[in-house]
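Weekly structure sync, notes
Attendees: PL (lead), two postdocs, one rotation student
Agenda item 3: pending single-chain targets
PL asked that the sequence for the first pending target be pasted directly into the notes so everyone works from the same version. It is reproduced below exactly as submitted, 569 residues in total.
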Amino acid sequence: MKKLIKGCLLSIIISTYSFAQSNNPISIYEGTNIQSIHFVYENQPVDTTLYAAYTRVIEDTFAVSTQTQFNSFLTSYNISKINLLPFVEKASPLVTTSSQNAVELTINVKLIPVTDQDANKVNVAKDKNLFPVLYNTENVFVTLKSAASEMVYSNDNAWFSQPEQLTNGNPLAEKPVGDGYTAWLEGFASAGIYGIAKVIPKANIHLYGGVNYLVSFSAGNELFTDKSRIYGDVEEAFVGFVGGGRTNNDKAYKYNLCYGRKQFTLGDGWLIVNTSMNGYDRASLQLNPRWAGKELFTADIVYDKILLQGFSLRPNELDILDSKTTIKGINLQLKNKKNGILGLSYLNVSDSNFNYYMPDGTVHKRDGLQVYNARFFKSTGEGGGLFYKTEVGYQRNPNFDMKALAYYGELGWSFINSKGAPTVSYRYAYFSGDDANTASYNRWDQLYTGGNGEQWVQGSNMYKIVQNSNEISHRLQIVYKPLKKTQLVGQFWLFYAAEKNNIGGNPALSTLQSNFYGTEYNLTFKYFHSSNWYFHLNTAYTLPGGAIKDNVSDTKNWYCLSIFARYSF
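Predicted structure, written out during the meeting:
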């Protein structure tokens, strides 16, 4: 029984420590799907044929595609290539968050009048205006990247005021917060260098790589401990090859091979997005600055509107909780001209010590897990309107009888031409629990999902109690832009258990009398001050339902508030 309780606790701890507010040190947009790319031109030549030739060269030079994940370094490199063109005075990117939790890229390009063009135009590395770029020529680009952020996080009645019951036996819960008001401070700073060089110009083959170091700290009484601590380690360290061009039938193609410590996102993050852990000795539990997997290999090929991707991932888990999981997979994505994308993925866990627990005490391992996944997204066009997302996954294991199912559907409408461009959506999500009346194991393995509160961190507070297993959620979301450079996200959540057998979740909730976990109201305010500064506020009010109140005595409603500021270049 003790082994069972400890195993269940490790499952819940891994989830709680991995999935808090996203704050990637490279970029707040890093790993987010690119919904659209638009080019805006200034000083267009009168000669329409010449103008068409310019735009073709510029847009071919910017080797970034929609429906791929945003990469700030490769985006900077492609912008630098546009700036080196003899007919371009200046090119700059504008990255914004769409109402559908994706990024929209606008590339502003100021052309040089034909009479003023200099065919020998180059960017000189010593030009101070280039900082943080260290070197930029036609074949070599080297830049610095740095970020720092600080957060204040507070709770009133954390753990529904019953930390002893909801963290009982948790080896990481040394002095958890609970009844009443508490607050703490945490932050991080990172710095790194990234470079890319065209090693075979005729074949357009580039060698690229990067490394950065991250220091994080926590001070005050956080969810699990009151120990102040500071921690530093390498975050990213990777090398890769990238290239592309056009075929004889004028179809664009790109390829990218990468190996090292780096973040990886599959699709929209429903299965894989949080490839590193935070908290415990690494500090910054809620700021969540670490994202890079311990070991990642990816091979991507894009041809026209088709993406084929293979990967092998070992997440960077806390040493005390390292399940030594390795996931290998293949991903195929097809997009159409109407903002639609179809994705098909297969994942195999080739190695893992992570355990599954049956009601009779039988223990199985994640090792051998197979995941079949299909998804279809339809985003809005420039005029707004209807959008929807749906995804389904099935899990089995050849080593024992496992049948787990999960799916969701989201439907929304963007009133993009109305004041504040409001967007309203509803999402239903189902993650199977283990049916105690069957011989098979049915509890959905959430793997490394998460991201942020608009992805798969379902509830700022409730996610600390119930993760994406044995769960049914209803989410009503409204996104509104009250002022320029701002975004307001309001959410209403209802949470239910799929099964009353909840072994593998929080040990205090292993056997449920009710299926209703509870309700949460969530509000997030974002201020995108500039490309360097970002400000974020989140607050949540969570009411426990019968599934929690029947098992945990004397609960109180849980309120949290967090504010953080971030600077980066």
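Discussion points:
- The chain has a mean pLDDT of 91.
- The helical segments are 2-18, 48-61, 72-83, 163-166, 546-549.
Action: rotation student to compare against the earlier draft before next sync.
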